[in-house]
Structure formats: C-alpha cells, structure tokens
Fold each of these.
Amino acid sequence: MAKEYSVVNWLPHISVDCVIFGFHENQLKVLLLKFKNTDVWSVSGGFVKSDEDMDQAASRVLFERTGLKDIYLEQFYTFGDVKRNQGAIQQHAQIQEKIGESGVDTSFLSDRYISIGYYALVDFSKVKVNLDQMSDVFSWNDIYDIPTMFLDHRAIIDKALERLRWSLDQKLLAFNLLAETFTMSELQQVYETILGKKLVRTNFQRKILSMDILVRLEKRYLGGAHKAPYLYRFDVKKAKVYLSQVEY
Amino acid sequence: MAKEYSVVNWLPHISVDCVIFGFHENQLKVLLLKFKNTDVWSVSGGFVKSDEDMDQAASRVLFERTGLKDIYLEQFYTFGDVKRNQGAIQQHAQIQEKIGESGVDTSFLSDRYISIGYYALVDFSKVKVNLDQMSDVFSWNDIYDIPTMFLDHRAIIDKALERLRWSLDQKLLAFNLLAETFTMSELQQVYETILGKKLVRTNFQRKILSMDILVRLEKRYLGGAHKAPYLYRFDVKKAKVYLSQVEY
DNA sequence: CCAAAAGTGTTGCAACTACACCCATGG
DNA sequence: CCATGGGTGTAGTTGCAACACTTTTGG
C-alpha cells in the first residue's frame, strides 16, 4: 500500500513486441536480447499502460532499448493464438528458473498474451542499446541468421520482414536505415539486403534519381585511389510530393 | 456464485471487430448494426475468451452474426488509441441510457478497449443476420454511404476496405463475395465496386481467363431476348497453382 | 595511369490500355 | 432481326531488365 501511488497500471494480457531493424556491414540486422544464463533470444517487448496509446507504448519500448526518439515505427500484425508459446513450455521453465535466480519476477512469462507487433527502422550508428531486467546480452543478428527464439518471436521477425519488403518502395523506407548523408551504393545495398537480391547499378540509380527525392551534396573523400562518390541527403518534402504523385 | 460454473472468462480490455463485406445489387455492402433506440451504428464486435485464439474469436463473432462458418477472414489492423472513443463520450452516455432501459449491462462501453480488426467476405445470399443484445436493426450499407458510426468504427471500415483492395488480386478474394456459380460480368462488377472504377470488359475477361482459375459451366437462361451468359465456377486447386506460380 | 564512380544509350520483353471489330445466339 | 454476350486483333504505351559503353576523377 505504501507504494501504491507509484504503481503503474498495465493492461493485462497485452504486450507489444518491437522488431528493431538496422543496417550495418552491408547487411540488414535485427536487434536481439538474450535471456540471462540461457540460449534463448527475444525481440524487444513491453507492456501497455492503461493511459497510453499502443503506438506510444511501442515508441517507449523502442526508446528504452535504443535511446532513440522520433523513429519510424509501423504496426504490422497482432499475434493472439492461445498456444503462441506452444512447444515453449520448457523454455519458460528454464527461463523462469535461470532468471528467477536474479530476483526478477517472471511469473508473467506463463500468462497468455496478445502481442501487437511493430517494427522499427533505426540508424545503426545512433543506437545505444540498454538491456532489460531479464537479459544479459544483446546482439545485432543478420536477418538470415536468427538463433533459437523465445515463443513465436521467429514468426514475428519473419512477418515484420515480409511487411518491410512490402512497404520499402511504397513508403520510401530505406532512408530510415541510413545516416543523414549516404552514397548511392550504400542505398543500393540497403535495397539489396532487404529484398535479398542483387540489383543492376545503372537501373537502380536511374530509378531512384528519377523519383527526385534526393539532394546531391559534395563528394565524400576517403583517400581511396579513385574517384570519390557523391553524398546524398533524403529530402522529406520532395518525397511527399513524389508519394502524392504516385497513382493508386 | 451459483452461476460460477458457467461463467465464461473473457480477456479484459480486448475486443474483436469484424467488418463484414457482401456483394448485392452490383455494389459492395457492409453489414451494420444499429444500437437500440439510437441513430448510432456499429460493425460486429465481440470479445475474446481466455482459451480461444483470436482468429477463433473473430470466426465466432462472424458465425453468431451471420450463421456462416468457414468464411474468408483476414486480420488487418489493431486499434489501440486511448482516445479511440474521443468525441464519443456523449455517444456513450446516450447509448448506455437507451440500451440500459432494456436491462442490458453496458458498463463495458466506457472501458478502454484494444480492438483487433478483421474483415470477412461473405456470399450475401447465404447470410441470415442475427442481431446482438444491444441492437434492434441491421442494414447492408453501400460502402460509399456510411452513416454515423460508433467510436472509430468508420476508420475501421476504411482501413478494412483499403486492405481488401490491396489483397483483391494478390489472394484472388473476389470469389468469396459471389455464389458458387456466377457470370463473368458479375465478377467484373465485384472488381469494379471494390476498386471504385470501371474496367474495360475485353481486357478484364482476358486477364481473368488467362489465370486459368475458372471452370466454365453451362449457360444461364433467364428468358431474356438475347444470348445467355456462361456460368463459371472458381476452382480452388487451379487457383493455388496460379498463386504459387506468380513470382514475388 | 587506373580503379572506382557516374551517367548515357539502346534493345528487348512483358504487361497493360484503349479500341475496333467479329461472331454467336435466344427469343 | 437485334440486343446482349463472348471473343480476337492490334497499335500504342510504359516500365523494367540487361548490358555495352563513355566520361570523370582522386591520388
């Protein structure tokens, strides 16, 4: 009772899972957390406060994990099977035992949860990862190399990726994974790693430039013995014009 | 306590809203219910049992409302703003008062709910609508003529329609809105009403027939003073072959 | 000089659009 | 006969894929 004034009211049986994508070393990566003393990984999850929009809850989870605000977030699917955790009963027991040792209350792990899935696109270089209470390690995993995941988190990642591929061109999402300025070949590599296939440079360049959504800046000098590439910046206003012109 | 053995356990703060589409009089219709003694309409909603998958809950809601099973259902979005009901406080008060008169407990109307949105595609001629406790009238409304809706149900319908347009070709959904057999021009009208634009008959016909997903049956004789149209049946097996052949 | 970067040109394919036009047929 | 249904042909367009080729330039 003494602490009641500070008790946060969480909506029961509802969670938010946030698949965080980043681009690094020419590959698309997902941020994963490992439960303490186990080999089980998970995406970043959280709960929803009773006075909080779901989108806000997802933003909060993302902020807690990465320190970033104003990040691209998209809700993609809600996972609500009773047996989402089927085949993971042992996983539960193992995790509860291992984490329980550190004094964290893990009883919620065996409750039924309906989880609203979001994915986030972040500038890898800006992320400062904070672990949660139950995790001791984090990792940026290549999307084609996902380890054993908690519950149905593998399916959640797959569905997120499917939707990301989908929205990539429709919403010009690739730029959310890059720094402020980038070269054309970096952009092409983002496309290639997300779509999982090689693209022809000349055609890709033509396509992107014809959208008229980029501003070309000075060149990037790295001291290589060759011509320096141009840097580009994504122009939000131009992008809006472009997106509004695309028919539907 | 005497009734405790039969009490169903519902997940709190979670609801399922089901947008039911049908095709009638050459138009795409949505099934709406009107709250007793009010002018406020809603789509078909329900709650989720604690031992029930979300998809099952949606199927159950659909069955209760239409008497139909094994119907195409697709989850399309989850609505979770705290103020989903903003601007509808008066709506609440009005509805609670009006419906309260008939002895139905409506206290849940003012709770916060996270609603998982599904849409269903039904054969209009097979539906036998059952009202729920709170409604006294139902109506199949043209999608371009939606009345004042409960809470954010207008936004829910719009989002469902957007997704339906989207999945129409990808998943060959049009056939779910037609009877077992249908003519080519009926099919074309389904496409036209969903997409909201006229299509050129010859091109449409070529496109559909080239998919090789239909079986042509005998002609339909209605006694008109002109050539009778062919009837077609959708062939599920052929459709699967077609969909698996379409690249991505 | 030379390797990387940037850009142009062209060819061919596939899909779609818009029409013109023809044949079939029920009553 | 004739209104409706069913189908073919085709010309123009667009977008994209593939690839050859040229030009630029940092060090």
Amino acid sequence: MKKTENQRQDTLYVASLEKGMRILSVFSEDRSELGLSEIVRETGLEKSAAQRFVNTLHQLGYLDKNPETRRYRPSLKYLEMAYSYLWSDNLVQLAMPRLIELSNQTQQTINMAKPLETDIMYVIRMPNYRTSFAASVIGRRVPALNASSGRVILSRQSEAMIRACVQDWPLKKYTGKTTMDRGAILENILMAREKGYCLTQKEILPDEINVAAPICSIEGTPIGAIHCSLPAIRWTMEKAEQEIVPLIVETAQAIVPSR
Amino acid sequence: MKKTENQRQDTLYVASLEKGMRILSVFSEDRSELGLSEIVRETGLEKSAAQRFVNTLHQLGYLDKNPETRRYRPSLKYLEMAYSYLWSDNLVQLAMPRLIELSNQTQQTINMAKPLETDIMYVIRMPNYRTSFAASVIGRRVPALNASSGRVILSRQSEAMIRACVQDWPLKKYTGKTTMDRGAILENILMAREKGYCLTQKEILPDEINVAAPICSIEGTPIGAIHCSLPAIRWTMEKAEQEIVPLIVETAQAIVPSR
DNA sequence: ACACTTAGTATTGTATTATAATACAGTTTA
DNA sequence: TAAACTGTATTATAATACAATACTAAGTGT
C-alpha cells in the first residue's frame, strides 16, 4: 500500500467513515444498481474494504440487496434523509405554500433551487405537464451558468464576481441550443441584474422557456431562486415576460427568510 | 466502558461506520439543528467519538456548520441522496408521468407511497392546495394502519396476514378523529380488499378525505399505492367515490413495473 | 461583575478495531 | 471443461479509532 495522500490526517478525522460515505455516494443517476466488484471499481477501495463497508451499510438498512443478483441499491433511507433536510431548511418551509399557490395560478412547472458550489440544486419541484424524469425530481444538480435560476442568483452578486464566475465556472452542453458562448451568458446575467429576473430559452431542454427570479436574505444576498418552465411551443419570450414574470418576481420577493 | 451488546461483532461489520451513520440519522423533523453536546445526548456516543465523527461528516460536506452558533445541520448532500434513490427506483420512474397527469386532471393533491416495515413512506408528492408542510414533502413516514395507502397495500395480502398486522402494528393518534379502534380499521381494510380501493376520512389531517388504490407487481404483490387527498369541506365520501376513485384506480392499475 | 455551569476544541498514549491478504465457493463465459 | 469472473469467509497484524483529560470560550444565574 502506497502512503496515501491524506493531508487531513488529523486525529479528528475518521477515515473509515469517509470510505463508507464514498460507497453511499457512488450510487447516482447512472449508477443505480451495483455489485461488489463494480463498487470496488467505482470507489477505488480495496476489495475487502468494500466488502466490509457494503456489508455494514446493508445491515444498517441504507443499501437494499437483491438476493438473486447480489447487487445493491439505495434504500428508502436515502429518502428519509431528504425529509430531514427539508425540515431543517426554513427557506423550503417558507417557500412551499407560496410555490403551491404559484403552481396553481400559473398551471405551469414551478421550481425552487439553491446555489451549491458552481451548480444549483433543485429543492422543490412542481411539474405541471409532461416533462423528463430528470426535470421532476429534487436533488438534481445543474451548472449554475446553464440555468436561469443559477444566472439570476449570480446576478445579485457584484459585477466583478459575476464576470469571474462566468469566466471560470463549468458549463455543460445539454441541447443543440445550449449557449456555450460565455459572452452571451454574461450579457444575459447583466440583463437579469437590471431587470430583476432572468429569461432563457432552450438551454437545458430543447423546447423550454425559463423564467427565474431571485430569493434574497434581508441583507440582500441571493440564497435561492424560483423558476418557471414553459413549453416553447405554446409560449414566447414576450408572452412569458408579460404573464409569468410578474407572478414569479412577486412570489420570490414575498419570500424573505427571517435570518 | 461496559461490554457493548454488539452481537453482530463479525469482522465484516465496521462499527465506526455505524456510529457515523447514527449521527447522520439523528437529524430529523424535530431535530433539525444540533450542537455537539446535543448530538452526544441523542446518539449516546462518547463526546470524543461524536467530535470525531461530526468533524468528519462536516469535512465531507454532509453537515453544514453555523460558525456563529457552532451547530450543525443536514446539508444539500442529503437531498442529493434522494436524487440517487429516485433514479434507482423504477416504480418511481414509471409512476411519475402518470401522477403528473392525474394531478392535472383532478387538480387535487396526489401522492405515491411505498411500504416500509410497519409504515408507509411517501415517495412522490404533488400538492395542489394549501396543506401542512409535512404533507408536501417526500420521505415522510406514517404508520401503515393510519393511512389509506397503507391500508390498501395491506388489503392485497392474505386475510390472515391482514388480521395479524391490524392487531400488531403501531397506530398513532393524529387528530381527534383518528380511528384507534382496530376492529374498525380491519373492517375498512376488508372493505378495501373487496372494492380494490380504500376510502378514509380525517385520519391524519382533520379536514381531509383520502382515496387510495394499490400498485401491484405482475405477480400481484402490493408494492405501493397512489393516494389522493381531498378537502373535506368541499368533498363528501360519496362524491369522492364517484369522481375520484375511478381515476385513481385506473392510474394505479396502469402502473405495472416490468419486474 | 462575579463565580459557575455548560459548550466546543485540542492532545496523547494505548489497545481495540479496521485492515489486506488470501483462500474458498459459486456463476458466467469461452 | 477449463478459465475468468463473481461474491464470501477467515486470520494475523499494525494502523487507526479510541477515551480520557486538559483547555478555552461562551453563556447563566445570583
């Protein structure tokens, strides 16, 4: 065994726990069922280590085991954790009733997202018409620069910060129409900065118009965004601006977390 | 230190990981922000142990730390885990578009739940009018006997099994109208067994009528349920039976997982 | 403003516990 | 029918998690 490059080798760091969590987190959108050897491959752990940790997680109920195939899957405990999170986030609690209301009014798909590193993560989703599965589940991460929510959150930062982020942050090509031109993205964000909301088109899904407005703390720092997806077949940017924007902006502004 | 009652003391069980998970899972609906000492109290771990594990989980990004109060909260990683779970569950993937459709048609609150030990857990929720926060988030657990979904899932088991469960499983008093009479519950379930759906009233929320239908595998074993909540002010059991039941039952029957 | 309690943090020597290696047993592939 | 691959079980070793304890900071009550 080569000496691992573990800098944080203080006595307050439990390496075993890290390995266990590595296994929990190896399951993902495209890795939803894994056998032991696959886990070994994906995590880089020793076979015997993987064996012990998987076994433990199975006994604790975090991984379901298919006795036929001997492969593992995330269990409902994964969902229970989401429940704990959602209760701990008072922004979610504040926003929930208003988003339900908004979803009712507009009869469109409504989301709330929070910034997470260079991404945004969807924390509330209320689909209102047939969309991709990915677009209907919470916990999804998308590069902030790709999403109207991410852009409108960024738009509340200093202009210097915005420029830096637009330059450095990752960007992913989702559709043929995904803007990969960082200049255009900067322009879009600066526009959002002026107007107080962000409009995008066909960035992540081919036939979708998106409207987003920022949620800010009392001090003015952006902590999330509400966003509405509209089918581009039946909507135009102009119509969205007239009919949807006011509702989104008003709802977002009404959400001001106590602290 | 007394010799712990750890039966499963085989070499394939990593006790450290268990302790770490114990900390992750101590956060819940009513424990959403905890300091170190509180964690010590709630988990029963040694102070120094809690210190190490909390520290590790914080460094790994699973716990957010408020530098002011030095208290910890579940991080967005908790949500990311839900995302992994949802992708791994093909029942969820199958059901999602149909539930969106159903939510559209009925304009009522639609849920999908799965059995989990003696509870059910909500895995999809689509609120359509103002409800309690608890009723709008996934991952929530409710005793199976309390919920129409739980009952309708049970109703597809053998009558012997039903009787046993109705006798033994836990029951929680949510409202003044929550049925604590196990005889009445049995009757309700047997009725559901005949009719193929379950109707309840004011069991968990004071002004709510619930309609549930089972989702079964090809072999006929119940693996989940769809359920609709109606405000009792505007609905009666009869109206629900006429207008909602057919839609719910049809949707539930249309969901048959491949294997 | 005072001691006083409670909270979080840092350090260390020890042995308990996680460890890697390896052997074994089923399954699928050629 | 062998070969290559899975998952499972066992063991001796030392590395790592451990509890104790001391320290510091922040509240609490008188």
Amino acid sequence: MTIVAFAEKNKAAEEIANILGKGNYKRTSVEGIAVYRFQRDGKDWAVTGLAGHIMNYDFPAEYNSWTGVPPGDLLDISPIKLVTKENFAFVIERLAKEAEEIILACDYDREGENIGFEAKELAERIAKVPIKRARYSTFSQKEIEEAFDNPGEPDAALAMAAETRQILDLKMGAAFTRYVTLSVREKAFTKEILSIGPCQTPTCGFVYEREKAIREFKPKDFWKITADFDADGNIFTGTHRAGHIPEKEKADEIMARIKGEKTALVDKKTIREQSLAPPFPLNTTEFLKRASAFLNISPEKSLEIAEQLYLSGLTSYPRTETNKYADDFDFKVILADLAKNKDYTTAVSQIVSAPAGIKSKNGPKDAKDHPPIHPIKGASKETVEAMIKLPGAYVVYDLICRHFLANLMPAAVFEKTKLEMKIKEELFDAAGSIKKFSGWLDIYDFETKNDKFLPDISEGDTTGVKKILNTASKTAPPKKLTEAELLTLMDKNGIGTKATAPTHIETNKKRGYFEAKGKTLSILNTGYMLMESLDDSVPIVIRPKIRAQVEELIQQVEDGKITMNEAVSTGTELIKKMYADLTENKDKLVTKLSGSIKTEAAETDKKNYIGVCPACQNALRIVTTDNGRFVGCVGYPDCSQTYSLPKTGAITVQRTKNCPKGGAAVLDVGKKYEWAVGIGPCFNCDQNVTCNPPEVVGSCPRCKEGEMQLIEYKDGRFLKCTLSCGHTQSLPNKGRMTVLDQKCEICGWNLFRVKEQGKDALEFCANRRCKAIGMRKEKTE
DNA sequence: GCAAGGTC
C-alpha cells in the first residue's frame, strides 16, 4: 500500500518527491505522466503532478444547439462537470487503487483546493481511503516536511467557492454570448462570435471608457507665459506662477505689467536631494507591465516567453503575486552565476561588495505562492537564443536579470533645484535636476531620466530677461490607454488573475473589439458599438462591478456563510436580471452592431466604399440595382441616408481627394469629369477652379489678358484662352506631353516636353507666335 | 461554437 499525493503540476510533484525522499526518488511514467516514487519512514510514496484543472463545467449535450435552445434557458439549468484531461483521470484512478491514504498537495489557494477536489472526486469513485490536505507555500525542506507530517482536512468551502465561480461564469458567458451573437446574425451576415464574459467585457470596458473620453473631449484654450532668463550667457526658461491661464485678458494683463523688462531677480533658490529607490521585485503583473512598456511585447507573448525561460531553468516560475523575497532567499549563488554575462559583471560585483551586505528592496505583497520572478542562471544572449526560439526571448530574460540586479542596488540620488524668479512683481518658476548618483539606474536603463541644468546663481542675483512669451494653447485630450495601464486597471479592480489577464486582453483582440498598435490600445468599431449598447442597456456588465459582485458571493461561500447552491441561485438571479435588461434593448443592440459589422465588410470592398455616413457613422457605399445606382448607408433600413449618382459612365472613387464643399467623396465619371457625392458634377461647382486649377502655359498672344490653358480630351489636346477672346492653338497630338517649369527665354511660355515611344524626348516652346518657334531642342534620355 | 481558471 502506498501514500499517494497529488500536486498541481509536475514541477511541484518532483520538488516534493525530492524533499520527502531526501533526494532519493524514482521517476516512473503512467500514460506519459510522471509519477515519482520513493520511500519515507518505511512507507511507499507516489507523488504525481496534475496540469491545473483536469475537469471543466459544461452544459449537458442537449443544450449544445445555439439555435435550438433559447439562450436564456441556459440560466435555468445546471451545468455538469466533466473530465477534460482523460490521461490524468486515468493516473488518479490507477494510483487510488494502491493508495492507503491520499494527500491533496496542490497550490495553497482557492483554485488549488478545487483542483485537489477534482482528484478527490475521481479517486473516491475507486477507493474509500482517507483523503488529507498538505498545505505549504514554499518548497523549503522544513515547510514541506511539516505539511506532509501533519496534513489537515480538505477545505470543502474553499473548493466550492471556486466551483461557484465556474458555474456562474459559464452561465453568464454562454447565455450572453449566444444571445448577442444570434441577435446580430439576424440582421448581418457574420461567422464571428460576439462574446461577453465577466472578465473580458469589463476589460474591454476600460478601453472603451478611455476612447469615449477622447472622443468626447472638448479642448479648452489656455495661455501660458514663459520667460527666458540670461545668467551670463546661460539661458534658462521659467514659467509664470499662474501656470495655465484660462482667460486671455488675464494673460494679457500680466504681459502688460512686465512688457519690455530687461532684468529679473533670483527671489528664492532651493536645492534638495531626492532619492529614487529601485523597483520592487517582479511579480507577474509588474513583469507584464514592464515588458509592454519597455520592450513593446504584449502580455500574452511575455508570459509565453517567461514560461519557456522557466522551463529551460533560466528564470523562476512566472506566475506569482509576491513581490517580496523570503528571509532566507539565497542571492549569492544566483549573483555569482549572473556574472557570467559580461553585461552584468559590474553590477554583480557592486552588489556583493556592498559593506552592508546584500539587501533587497522588498515590496509589500506576500501571497505565499512563489518567490518574485528572478533569474536562476546567468546566460549569454547566444545561449538564451539557442535555448528558446521565440522572438524577444533574450530581451525578456535581460529585463528579468536587470530588474533582479537593480532591486539589490542602492537608490539613485538626484539634486533638484528650484528657482523662483521675479520680473517686477511677477513670479516665474524654473526647475533643474541633476543625477548625483546613478545607483540602480546603472543597470536599469529602460527609463532615461535626462539631466536638466540650471546656471549656478544665488538668491539676490539679477539676471537678464531675453524674452517673454505669451503662448496660446489648447488642453490636450487624454492619451490612448496603454497595455501596461490596462493591466494596472485589471489588477486594481480584480479582473482576472495574474495568469489570466493576458488571456482576457487577447480574447478581446481576437474578437475584434480592440487592437494594439505598439504599446497603445485602440478600440475597434465593433468593440465600441458593443460597449456602447451594453452601456445603454446593462451598464453593469461593462464595469468591474459585475466581477466584484460575483466575487463577493464566492467569498461568502469560502467563509462558510452560505452554501454553494445558495450562492449559485443568488448569482443566477443577478444574471437573469441583467439578461432581461439586455433582451429588452435588443433593437438598439442589433442596430448598432449589425451596422458596425456591415461597415467593416463595406470598408474592405474598396471599389464601392465611399466613406462615413454623416447620419449614423456607419459606412456609405455604392449600391447597384436593376434600376440604376446610388450611394446608400449600410445601416439601411435603420438609416435611410442616400445620394444620387450620374446615370452613365464608369465610376472610380478617388481616395486622395476631399471635396471642400463637404461631398462624401469625389468620383471620376468615365474619363470625362468629376462628381462629388451629395454635391453633383464638379464642373458646375463654384469651387471647381480651386479644386482643378487649369494648367496654363503662358499669356494669350491675342487678347494679352487671358492665359492659354491646356485642354486635354479623349481624342487630342489644344490650347485655349481662359478669357472669352476665343483664341485657340493646336498642339502635336502624338506622344506623352508634360508642361515643364522651365520658361521660354523669348516669349515666357512654359516649355513643353514630348516623348514619343522609341524616339528621343523633345523640349520646345509651343507658342506659334514666338520667335523661338522651330527651335526645338533635342533631349536624350 | 459560449466563460474563466489552472498549466504546457
């Protein structure tokens, strides 16, 4: 008989076997899954690692049909739990047969308890043996031994808390997703799924809120007064104390008081040292934020790289909330190894030779899960790239190493100088900053902090005033949300976990709700329309509150205050209420979303795409029917915006031209003329001369007042006076003709250049009344 | 086909 233990993952199982077996264990394999066997106190032990959850909730098969089951019905039925990783289930059953006792040894948290219960459920189908729980937070000899010497009882409440989340998330996600997707498909053809979820939707909500703030932003005027001071040729700038002045009169008053002043007084000078502490050790969220901000790598990719670095033994486990090292953390071995990389040698020797010893600047979070992300081994760029074939592998490794080193280095020190300058009675502020001691910044050069110098002057000194400026300006709209900011918002609001935040961001990208351009996120039309309609109908869904409410129910289950069933039914009621709000506003939702989907389709149909509908912001495109053609909105029938088009002639939409009168687009009709959508033919327009300036070559030799204009038509070309004197002149009809910038020295007309195929190009004056006529210059190409 | 959470 054997004592069987289940850990959350293989790596943990091996650690446990190593510690409990005192380095003496045997690795066996069942169904390709490692089982570690060893002896302890005369007993046989078997430890295996699962792979996170091995079961998952789903609806019974008869509810799989999206069209056959009204989505709302999903809220009234109970999902069932099914095994998703059969090979692990097999190993659990196999080990249960030989077990005299089972110890659940997954991570010490809510999901870990739940994963243990999955193993428990499968094992209990096979054998009735005592099932215990080993609780540990680190893989130290002492903690592991204690955890397995005195295992406790499994915590059903904790495990059921996770179960509550699983059921409520599935119900809400499935019902909402099916409903929105199917409703939109009634009006617009799309194979895409429009998903809604308790984490992904608030995540999109953050991007939407920022975008909305940008779109609704109204810039405000302000004035700013600055002065350039001259201290013995050293020029520095100060800003008037009033800062941003919203009223022009006020700024003008100040200017009037100091106009023409040539000297200023150094009224006050303060110098203080400011130290900048190194960053806390890296936890997952902080790591993802920095990788995005410094390296421009998406959270999803960063986590994937960190996972590979971890599996290759280069860095530690990448999923942790902790940003504090344990008291007995061994920095020395790692530091010695890091010195192998020449980029780190100097920093390492600084750290190990510090008189006060090696000291970490620890953060406040100790989630008792894993140590902060840190390097395990020092490696060169070539080594890392040879081990991990992912773009960005080395820069991510380098970031982790530099962060680790920076954290152990002394604070940087800056000297901050403030000058209060007085021009008459008006106060101006100037600030300077000089790095006195670089400390950790030596190794961590991701954020550059440039020095800003001020001249060496003292209180009571006077300086010259070179110029005083009153600059009119406008307040700037908020900036687009960055991926790093989004991660912060998610973390603060409890949306997702350290390990899932990147997935939620990725889901939104995959659904076409928002996209990343470099570090910044931009909402896409579908995402904006979805959020806007949800904001109108079920605003709670796009805000973090929805997660918080479910989280509170879960917490009550965890605390044993309510049962899982009670929590599920309360939670389901909450979802039903939201679902009712959603269905009540179906029309609005569908109109906006189907319009946005059709707009995307129209935008890719370049030939017929016209532009944005002024009435509804969807797409305008050319519609051709048996009765002719016109420009219509994809939002039809909800939007009936239309424009007529000329009845004949091939139409080409000009992408480079905008109609100054506000036509929706400018079209070429045949090769004959232009037409502005919503305005009409360009030749009837008073703006035509501005839009299509005639090409003139010189003054009219007959009336002397008009200019000779080049007229080109299908069958030929000639010159015609722009005034009504009626003078015309023919031009050679063969070859490609261009009017040159160069002028005829005799008559002042622009020279012409004609190139016939197979012949040399000719440049000449075309003026029949010019004395230069006939003096054609040959030009070889 | 739908969620979010583990882990690979």
